[in-house]
Structure formats: structure tokens, C-alpha cells
Amino acid sequence: MKPVAKSAKLANVCYDIRGPVLEKAREMEEEGHKIIKLNIGNLAVFGLEPPDEIVQDMIRNLPHTAGYTDSKGLFAPRRAVVHYTQEKNIRGVTVDDVYLGNGASELIAMSMNALLNDGDEVLIPAPDYPLYTAVVSLSGGTPVHYMCDEQSDWMPDIADIRAKITPRTKALVVINPNNPTGALYPESVLLELVEIARQHQLIIFADEIYDKTLYDGHTHTSIASLADDVLFVTFNGLSKNYRSCGYRAGWMVVSGEKKHARDYIEGLNMLASMRLCANTPGQLAIQTALGGYQSIKDLVAPGGRLCRQRDLAHKLLTDIPGVTCVKPKAALYMFPRLDPKLYPVADDQQFAYELLAEEKVLIVQGTGFNWPHPDHFRLVFLPNSDDLAEAIGRIARFLEHYRKRHSHGSNA
Known about the structure:
The protein is an alpha/beta fold. The chain has 13 helices and 15 strands.
């Protein structure tokens, strides 16, 4: 039989958050090992449940959700999203500018498919959320990574962005709050990004899925609120702020300079129609979620569960010799750095395999987020404090052995 090969389009696509190291973890679980998983921001498995009123609303509405909806989604949840954009000071959004999707991920793919021709370039942060690199490649585009600067709290390197713009550049991706670094961009940085988009007529794709998961009293500014003369496509959803990953309820908002984007918007409408509609039960959770009490505030407040776990994880990690970490201002992740003098890691996927094999802890290596050096990894601080302390204790033990193994022949 002739072998069946995967599409050539997948050659540059990877999604290591659920990649080969996870496959190894699954094999080990089947053999009876208990793995501590710090690889994915899947809140429910750590006992972080969605607000009860969302669940009750979906149960109550379920008997009436068997039909297709409008391809962009039901009117009431889209209207709720419009109200949300008004709270975020994004001007001029109507119900027609809102698309509901099966999570933000579906809409991110749709937005790139509607835009890109072969060879078109999209500027994506490094480190990034790898879905962006993957969908740009799958859409025939070329992902171009701009650096974020660890020395400046992981802010985008404005000079690097400018240096990487070419006549083929179509768009700039801004992930704020940031996954994997936990960075939160101040208005001054966002205004610089808007100015770049304005000068080069770029679309800004703004991922704001963590916009309520903020610590230490920080506030979030939607980049789309800062200009009317640039085209913005903003993504958000219920997965993180509302602990509802599995409901697959997300939205996309087109705002700003829409006059010159009529053809692109027609493409979005076409793709929205082709997938018929987003799942109806998930759509019905949106209006309830956006109205009423925002329980995420309790989790991120001082003494709240997520805040406590962030503080604990940061302290335990940075107590390990040769490990530094910018403390996250937002989101659910840390992106610690291993000092290459103490940890001469050549292949960080192999490093993740070894950690898994020796200590039964699953992390994602930094290169899985298109970071160019094998000196970082991403850790999720969702497990409760006891499990987190156990997991980071195992990482510390592994790193101690790693230092000893590699210290002969060096001064370490």
C-alpha cells in the first residue's frame, strides 16, 4: 500500500502544548504512573469550576438549542458582547460586528483564512501562543516572530517589530494579557503598536482572553479603544475568565477602520456561514457570564486562590539556583528562565522528556512557544497550593541533579 502522508501545509505547524511530550505522559499514565500536569490552562481539572448561574442557564436552555442559529450567532449574546465593548471603551461596535465561535480558537483560524494569500506575512510575538503561528502557516501565510524583551517585563520590542515589516506584512498580533509570559501591556506600549499599524496599514489582531485575570490591582486596556483609524479584530471568550474551557464559547469583534475592509469582512461572513454556526448552548452562556457578578475578581484578589498560587509558584521557582522569572501581572502562566551556565540545555524538548521521566511532572518547553533559545519553559500555576509545592519541589530536585550532572568540566 502507498503510505498516506499528511498535508505539506502541516510541515511548519506544531502545537507542543499538546505535543509529543504529552503523548509520552499518556503512555506513562497507562502504565500506572501519576503525572502532575503543568502543561495546559484547563481550569476544570484543577477544581476551578464555572460560575453556577452559567451552568444553570445552560441546563435550563438546553431543550431549546437543537436548531442552527444565525451564522454569526444569536442576537442576545452578541448584544451582550457589544455592551462589553462599550465598557472597554471600544467605539462604534454594532451587533453586526460581533461573531460568536466555538471558542476564540475557531475565530482566530477564520480571521487568518479570510485574510491571507500565499506568502503574506503576519507579525507574531515570540514567545507566542503557538496557535497563531500554526494558523498563519495553514492559511498560506508566513509567520514572522517579533521579540518580547524579558529585561523589560516581556514587553514587545518596538524596534524589532519595525525592523521586520516588509511589503508583504498584513497584520500584527498582540496577545495582551500575554500567554505564556503573564505580561500586561501598559497604554504607552499599546499606543506605540497602534502607531506602527497606522503607519504601515496593518490589521491588529488582539487576543484579550485573559483580560479579567489580573493581579495586584492592575487594569487592562483594550488596544481597540485607542484608535478609530486602524482596523482591529479582537478575540475573547469564556474559557479562562469564566472557567468554561469545554463550553467552547468565544467571540470576535471587528472595529475601527472598517470602510476599507469591506471585502475582508465579506470573507469573514462567508467563512462564518460555511461552518453554519457556533454551538448554541455555548452561545447561551455568554449573556449570563458577561452580566452580573464577576467571580474571577475573588480568585485574583490578594488572598484569592489564583493570586496565592501565583505568589507561591513564583517564590518556589525563583528560590531554585539559576532560575529567574518575571512575575506575571496577569493570566495563568509563568515563563521561567534557566541560566545556561548552570543548565546547558541543548534541546529543551529532551529536557521536558527527562523531567517527565524522572519526576512525573509535565511542562511545555519554551521553544514550543516559538522562543528561539532552549532556556525557558512554561508552567501553569493552576494546581492547588499543596500540589503546586509538590510539583515545583520535584522540578527543583530534577534541576539539582541536572546541575550536578553538568557541572564537571565547568566551574559550576
